[in-house]
Amino acid sequence: MQSALAARPHLTRLCGSALRLGAISRGPARQQHRRGGGSGAAPARAFSSGAEMPLQYRPPIVVQPREKHTATVIMLHGLGDSGDGWAAIGDEFAPATPHVKYIFPHSPLRSITINMGMKMPGWFDIVSLEDIDASEDGPGLVESKRYVESLVAAEEAAGVPSERVVVAGFSQGGAVALMMLRSERKLAGIVGLSTWLPLRNEEGVISAANAGTPVLQCHGDADGVVAYSFGVATNKALKALGADAEFLTVRGMGHSAVPSELEAVQEFIKRVVPPA
Q: Would the keyword Ribonucleoprotein turn up in this protein's UniProt record (predicted)?
């Protein structure tokens, strides 16, 4: 892996090891990045998930396209992270995808059971990472899906149809990305990195609109946070439902990101939303 990293210095700086609690699912970078302004930046939003106070969403980081905007990628970070943790890929992917806008939302603060109930950035509550099906936070998952759908709707209002929008996510964010298979808005593609399929025992995992939507899954076989077996089981479940789901095993990778994985993501984006 060292030789692969050395051969790709522009991607090496994006890839860092993920940490457990406190920042259980950090993205590949933790620096500030170029932000889009004006109409390209979504406003702050408040959504209620049944809690006493509505959850507050900060405006996402937006990396504007370098050419005419004809497609959008929404990338969701993992538990304990923020949009800043992944925003570097927008600039790194831009030369190969100059027509694509990249949006990096920030999850709201919420109480996380696995973090002793303390508040931290999260898309939904997690009770256990050993038995992910146990006590799933259905309301939190649905609320986060609704928020992502609002971002897709904003892109539609700006002239980019949902069929030209890719929703991607890492770890907990990947679970929300896979929730978007339930959306009635047809998407260009879904990317789930080091993640699992939530609410898989409920009906409507894949809507009629997204029955043929391509899915890319990537998972490290040395993942000590979200077990590799969860990724394999997710892919099996998706294929059983008729999904066009590709699965990439990343040998030796833990709960993090590596250049070869990011290159696969970039190629997927180029394939499902080519220049229009």
A: no
